[in-house]
Amino acid sequence: MNKHYSIGELSVMSQIKAHTIRIWEQRYGLLTPIRSGGNTRYYSEQQLMKLLNVALLRKKGIKISQIAALSEKEIIDQASEHTKSGGAKETAIEQLMNASLHFDQSTLSNLFNLYIEEYGIEETFEDIVFPFLKIVGNLWVNGKITPGHEHFFSNMCKLKLFSVIDQLPLPSTSKPHILLALPEWDYHELGILYYYYLLKKAGYNCTYLGQAVPADDVIQTSKKVKTSYVICTFIGPTTEKEITNYVDSIIKELPDIHLYISGPHVVSIKNKQSKRLTIFWSMDTIIKKFNLKA
């Protein structure tokens, strides 16, 4: 993990404006930036953790002047107490970031339980988990957290979802069959797993193949289970040619299905959208198409 952070990176991770961070430095001495040989300001991992705790306490209504008067240990203890006692949306980013950076499985699991108890599984994922994952993804791409941090958090999310899915009743046999899969190069499973949860909850017959599935396997399975719809997401690194080949194979070999695809890379083939291929840019498309929410 990169131990040095710019003020902009601190701002992204703490959700506090860089201007505010500078004021807190100057007025209260809250953080002490390190200066490189070229006089560039940067911050240590310890200062990042302190800022996350400060941000959490501020959102709990504690004045910055009161926080600045606390010792380092008092800030940590009070922030920890607030993390254990509640899972409010307004402090979720700071809570999740702190637990994820420390690989704190116990705290992260407790936070999930608190969020789900307070808001339900859908609001927790749509309003807390997915927005947080966008921040985590940007930090990973820029080398500010390791793949381990991202995998730790996303795998915890998947465990929670699998647990909830396992408790859902058997689907209705009257609804069409839907197959969900990621292409063979893609392991970013959380988004499509959430679609599986919504569809199964709504009573659809689903075959969930998950990550890293070759197009041939999608085709053969779809034929056996008489699929009406296939949903694929393209999140991991790929090329226009790979996406085109994957999509064309499914469309050609499964003439009776409708294919839904999404992900940051599908913009490269947006001209291929047709009566049998829908490119969607948000989960609202799937929610509305299959009437997944009352």
Question: How would you briefly describe this protein structure?
Answer:
By secondary structure, the chain is α/β, with parallel strands linked by helices. 56% of the residues lie in helices and 13% in strands.
Please tell me about this protein's structure.
- With 294 residues, this protein is α/β, with parallel strands linked by helices.
- It folds into 2 domains: 4-163, Multidrug-efflux Transporter Regulator, Chain: A, Domain 2; 171-289, Rossmann fold (3-Layer(aba) Sandwich).
- It is built from 12 helices and 8 strands.
- A 5-stranded parallel sheet has the order 5-4-6-7-8, sandwiched between helices.
- Helix 11 links the parallel strand 6 and strand 7.
- Helix 3 crosses helix 5 and helix 3 (45-59) runs antiparallel to helix 6 (92-101).
- The protein is elongated, with a radius of gyration of 22 Å.
